[in-house]
Design brief:
Elements: H1 2-11, H2 15-28, E1 32-33, E2 48-53, E3 56-61, H3 67-70, E4 72-78, E5 83-94, E6 97-105, E7 118-128, E8 131-144, H4 157-160, E9 172-176, H5 184-193, E10 200-209, E11 214-216, E12 222-225, H6 228-244, E13 253-259, H7 276-287, H8 295-301, E14 304-308, E15 311-312, E16 335-338, H9 348-361, E17 366-369, H10 380-388, E18 391-396, E19 398-400, E20 407-410, H11 413-425
Parallel strand pairs: 1-2, 4-13, 4-14, 14-18, 15-19, 16-17
Antiparallel strand pairs: 2-3, 3-13, 5-6, 5-10, 6-9, 7-8, 7-10, 11-12, 12-20, 16-18, 19-20
Helix pairs in contact: 2-6, 6-11, 9-11
Bound molecules: zinc ion.
Residues 78, 229-230, 262, 309-310, 379 line the site of zinc ion.
Length: 429
């Protein structure tokens, strides 16, 4: 599984690539695309479908009974990660250099992007006759770098920290050129796509670290990669959904919802706060065999959401940042995340259920509760819980360096999480 996990991480430099890669893996396993604008289709028990929407994807396998009779088993995670987005008019020309202006997306730790070999990836819209079309682009070679300032010119850097202004300090060096009119990024994209530079209309592009995912540690216990938050949970959900195909078809309908835009608040046409999942669930209830009255609310009243997002492992140098009895460790199993103000959607009922899922899968589990004197992060769980009025438990695998350009997690945790989720999709009550 770790080889598949590394391949998934490397194939997914942006949320658009992650969703497309998920679609490819699902299609290879027998899932077929569903046209959400198309007319109703009969969904027989065992039907396996997915809907791809840019950087988000929903996949489902219809259970043996209509969801109104047996409910949904949903796993939600997010495809996006903090990064540096390239502006629409990015070329900055100073001192004979061309830099690309960027805008931080989500909670970027700026300093972790310095002095790295950076590629460029994302989605580009090009003119196509009297229409437009999207092209996924991945310029996977060292193109950009954001150089640090020498310590001789910044004597306080180790005592004061590396302070970086995103407008002034983060534009990425792309070229050395005195040409005042050239647009080298546009030319690069046109060459990659095979179109005229003028045919490029707009883009959603970001920089990404080219270093591939790597297994490390004395005994191979660590994994280093960009975007573990939250491609780790996405991959565990995918593995679990596909593994569930090996077992008998349960009564419950399995749903995997991988949302874009979590790192910027989830409020968008395809984010976790949107009506998208609700619309698709309603359609499944109506198109699945039986079509009962009042189906969606009946289905949701007996459904569960497992919201999976990475968790804070205790850092050996900063153990005082954790509550002493809630210190998740790498390779010690999935973490149940609870917060009394519902920054995480967990309450005792969901925690008890997830503990039993881990037991049934034969994997360890751990708890995370924030220190009572620190503000707590959040994720898609409470948003979907509120939108759908569905019982929710928030979980995630432990990691270090969250939101760094290069994060780390434990190699044994990934199969543990996938095994617990597979029990969930398998219909355990
Ligand atoms: Zn996250």
């Amino acid at each position: 599984m770790i080889d598949r996990f590394r391949a998934w991480l490397d194939a997914s430099p942006t949320s658009f690539h992650a969703a497309a890669e998920a679609a490819r893996l699902l299609a290879a396993a027998g899932y077929s695309a569903l046209d959400e604008a198309g007319p109703p289709e009969a969904l027989a028990p065992g039907s396996r479908r997915f809907i791809l929407r840019a950087g988000s994807i929903l996949a489902f396998r219809v259970g043996a009974r209509n969801p109104a009779e047996a409910g949904f088993r949903m796993v939600a995670a997010h495809t996006d990660s903090p990064n540096l987005r390239i502006k629409p008019r990015p070329h900055l020309r100073e001192q004979g250099y061309v830099r690309l202006g960027v805008e931080p997306y989500g909670g970027v730790i700026h300093a972790t992007w310095m002095d790295r070999d950076l590629g460029i990836a994302g989605r580009v819209y090009v003119r196509d006759g009297d229409r437009q079309r999207a092209v996924l682009v991945d310029l996977r070679r060292p193109l950009c770098r954001i150089p640090t300032l020498a310590i001789h010119l910044n004597r306080g850097v180790n005592d004061d920290g590396m302070k970086l202004n995103p407008q002034k300090d983060l534009p990425a060096l792309l070229a050395q050129s005195d040409d005042k009119t050239a647009e080298p990024l546009r030319d690069l994209l046109a060459a990659a796509i095979g179109c005229e530079p003028a045919a490029i209309l707009a883009w959603d592009l970001s920089l990404y670290d080219l270093t591939p995912a790597t297994v490390s540690g004395l005994n191979g216990e660590f994994l280093h990669s960009a975007r573990l938050d939250n491609l780790g949970s996405c991959h565990a959900g995918l593995e679990a959904l596909l593994a569930a195909d090996a077992g008998p078809l349960p009564d419950t309908t399995a749903v995997l919802a991988l949302f874009d835009h979590e790192e910027i608040g989830s409020t968008s046409e395809r984010g976790a706060q949107s009506a998208w999942l609700e619309h698709v669930l309603d359609r499944i209830v109506r198109d699945a065999a039986g079509d009962p009255a009042g189906g969606l609310s009946r289905a949701l009243a007996q459904s569960w959401l497992v919201s999976a997002d990475m968790a804070h492992a205790v850092h050996p140098a900063f153990a005082d940042k954790h509550d002493p009895e809630h210190m998740p460790k790498l390779n010690a199993g999935p973490v149940i995340k609870q917060h009394t103000s519902q920054r995480y959607g967990t309450e005792a009922e969901g925690a008890a259920f997830f503990l039993r899922l881990c037991e049934a899968a034969g994997v360890p589990s751990q708890w995370f509760v924030n220190r009572s004197d620190l503000a707590c992060g959040s994720t898609v769980g409470p948003l979907v819980a509120a939108r759908l009025a569905v019982r929710t438990v928030d979980v995630g695998n432990p990691m270090l360096s969250m939101h760094s350009a290069r994060e780390m997690c434990g190699t044994r945790d990934q199969p543990h999480m996938a095994a617990a989720m597979a029990k969930f999709f398998g219909g355990m009550r």
